[in-house]
Structures are given as structure tokens and as C-alpha cells.
Amino acid sequence: MSVTQLKTSRDSEERQLRVDLAAAFRLTVEMGWHEGVGNHFSAAVSPDGKSFLMNRKWRHFSTIKASDLQLLDADNDSIMKTPEAPDASAWAIHGGIHASVAHARVLLHLHPPYATAVASLADPEIKPIEQNTARFYNRLAVDLAYTGIAEDKEEGKRLARILGNKRTMMMGNHGVLCAAPTVAEAFEDMYFLERACQTLVLAYSTGQKLNVMPPDLAERTARGWEDYGDSAFAHFEQLKQKLDRTDPSYKE
């Protein structure tokens, strides 16, 4: 492949990442998971993850377009002294994790209602009481050392260490984070995380004892979900088609 062809390929890949990430912002609004002009999504564009796309400071998710996403370099702290500086807490969390966790190509950080409610419990474990909750059995990272709004990339590095090789993190007293190879997979994880936590909160609200699966059944169910991994791409593609019918401006 020539240098020109390689550049064209990379440009095409970045363009698709921008479109998919913009779609995820719009879909998050439809799902009711957004929170003011806070929270951030990012996607790595370089092999080492240090070059990444992220939403600009204080933009409502419903307005974000592919062209709005900011291309950042995790090693370039000088941007924080410019008018183009991203949100400081987002820079700390996303910059730190992208630079440290190779598999975290796409990061979605949100405070969705049910998942945040569970993350706020003294025990934020998602008990395997049915299929969606079992999806996360032994597959969650849990951070119970919240110290306030993130202020520097050391916090991102700390979160990266806790995330390890997991794809989903319950951030105690804070929210949740999903890390995956693609936007579609990260969005699918967030979708089912919120669904699982909704079921768990409703079950807790009855005051009755939970019917928790035995470990072998929970693990077998979690592994069974892995056979349906491609459904994430089908789900996300059809959600994008829905956006195309109602407001395709996210692609611009």
C-alpha cells in the first residue's frame, strides 16, 4: 500500500469513527442517559491510544456532529492552557486511560440513572439474577476510592489500573464507564449495563430476597453472551438507521 493509500485508509477510518461516536451521543439522549453538558465519549485513532477523539467542552449531546469532535494528544498537556482546552475532568479520565489501556479503544463515561444508583450502593456488584445481570458476572471492575471530580491524569491512570482487562467499570459514588474495541460494542455494553441495573434496582425495591444464580450458572450465562457478540453491530447499525430517518445531521 502506498503512502497516499495508507493516508486515505486512515482518513476513512477516522471519518467512520467520528460518525459512529456522534451517533452514540445522539442515541444517548434518546435513551435518557445524558446529563446536562457533562460526560464524555472518546475513541482512539492511533495504535498507542494517545491520539483520540472526544467531545468538546460543554456541548449538549443532542447537538454533536461528527465534525465537532476534537482530536487530542494525551501527551500534549499544553492544550489545557488554550481556548480549545477540553473539560478538565474528561482530559484526566480519558487521556489517562487511553494512554494506559491498549484494549480501551473506545471509552463511554456516563451517569445513567439505574447504573449510577447501583454504583452508589455500598455493594455495587451486579448480582446475577437473570440473563442481563449475569452478562456482567465476574466481568466488572469496581472502583470504591472516589475522591471527588477528577483533576489530573494521575486519576485517569489510577482508573486505568482498576479497569485492567475488564470492559466495564462501576465507579463508586460517581457513575459508570465502558471500554471496548469499537463504538458499537461499547454502546452495547452501556445499553445492557443500564438494563441490568434497572432490573436489579426494581428487584431490590420489592424488599424480597434476590434469587441469585449459583456461580456455575452465572458464569455459563455470561459466557453464553459472548456467542452473541456480533449482535452489537446489528443493534447499533439499526439504531443509526433510525437516526438517519429522524435527524441525519449527526453525520455532518
Q: Could you walk me through the main structural features you see in this protein, from its secondary elements to its overall organization?
A:
- With 252 residues, the protein is an alpha+beta fold.
- The protein has one domain (12-251): L-fuculose-1-phosphate Aldolase, CATH 3.40.225.10.
- The chain has helices spanning 3-31, 88-98, 113-119, 131-134, 153-163, 183-205, 215-226, 231-246; strands at residues 40-44, 51-54, 70-73, 106-110, 140-143, 168-171, 175-180.
- α2 (88-98) packs across α5 (153-163), α3 (113-119) crosses α6 (183-205) and α6 crosses α8 (231-246).
- The protein is globular.
- The two termini are 29 Å apart.
- The relative contact order is 0.15.
Instruction: Tell me the count of domains.
Output: 1
Q: Quickly give the structural class.
A: alpha+beta
Helices and strands, in N-to-C order?
Answer: HEEEHEHHEHEEHHH
Shape descriptor: globular
CATH class: Alpha Beta
Poorly predicted runs of 5 or more residues: none
Strand content: 5-15%
**How many beta strands in the DSSP annotation?**
7
Report the CATH superfamily.
Answer: Class II aldolase/adducin N-terminal domain
On the 0 to 100 scale, the average pLDDT is: 95
H/I helix tally = 8
Q: Could you name the CATH topology?
A: L-fuculose-1-phosphate Aldolase
Q: Helix amount, in percent?
A: 40-55%
What is the terminal-to-terminal distance? 29 Å
Main sheet: strand order: 3-2-1-4-7-6-5
Using only C-alpha atoms, the radius of gyration works out to: 18 Å
